Amino acid sequence: MTAVTTGTAVEATVETTAEAYEAAFDAAVAADERIEPRDWMPEAYRASLVRQMAQHAHSEIIGMQPEANWITRAPSLRRKAILMAKVQDEAGHGLYLYSAAETLGTSRTELLDKLHAGRQKYSSIFNYPTLTWADVGAIGWLVDGAAITNQVPLCRCSYGPYARAMVRICKEESFHQRQGYESLLALSRGTPAQHEMAQDAVNRWWWPSLMMFGPPDDESAHSAQSMTWKIKRHSNDELRQRFVDICVPQAETLGLTLPDPDLKWNEERGQHDFGAIDWDEFREVLKGNGPCNEQRISQRRRAHEEGAWVREAATAYAAKHSGKGASGDSGTGGARSARLVEKEATA
Ligand SMILES: [Fe+2]
Ligand SMILES: [Fe+2]
């Protein structure tokens, strides 16, 4: 009898504690406070964040491929240096985001395995080919531009590590957008052939860029819950509209036309109207039937396999030197490690 009473009391306490945790979580989100890794959070919130951050991280590293395609053929040393820096930035973005996802108890290895097995997605935009040099400019202007529009509100996301990673990423994306714009401007004001190349790239990248904001609000599976949790701050359609309104005057300055005959200013709404997006194309690309899906994922798998020795060497190096940093003489140890790395890099 006593045992039963005690059991019930314990159960009641556990229930009260779980409710208290949940109430504290809801209150923190409502007050615009950040949720940190050690805080209690609903399992569905954790799963939703892992899904979104993984997809974001995967997009950063898969997104390196279409542009890296042009590094060896950049038209000048200056353009080559800029493009290399940009592609490296994207690798860095992937790193920040995988690290941020790790704070939720999921490893980078696990996420990469899921990407390679086709069990997690990356942005559909990177399944389109880069046919000419002007595509590099169009990607910077439109793809990085759409990414910024999507990502600036994520700097205020309720999960602390994600929000903080986004602050630095957005600063770098901003540079990417400007370099793309400047490169397209140079082409647009160049020879007639260069102008035509710029226009052709914009024609091909405009619609896929609008698809980057995701399906329309009434078809977006995760949107409502993400907005309640303040992971997401604006709806897909709201952000898409904002992007269109930003791009129209920029296209005018570029001297390029956006390939949409229905695009026009709506005085009443104070926004631009634009034509219908081909959602069948979007769904096909998501299903794996885009022009470059297979190429992107097989190249990623190959890069991962060929990089195995680098991961092994880095792990062995870290294990070999792990005791030294903890001896208290971290200043000297750090400098010594840095010298060793430098020596190995030049060897
Ligand atoms: Fe990026
Ligand atoms: Fe970028």
Automatic annotation (TrEMBL):
Residues 325-334 have a biased composition (Gly residues). InterPro entries: Aromatic_CoA_ox/epox, Ferritin-like, Ferritin-like_SF, PaaA, PaaA_PaaC. It holds the Pfam family PaaA_PaaC. Gene3D superfamilies: 1.20.1260.10. Residues 317-347 are annotated as: Disordered. This is Phenylacetate-CoA oxygenase subunit PaaA. It comes from Streptomyces camponoticapitis. The gene is paaA.
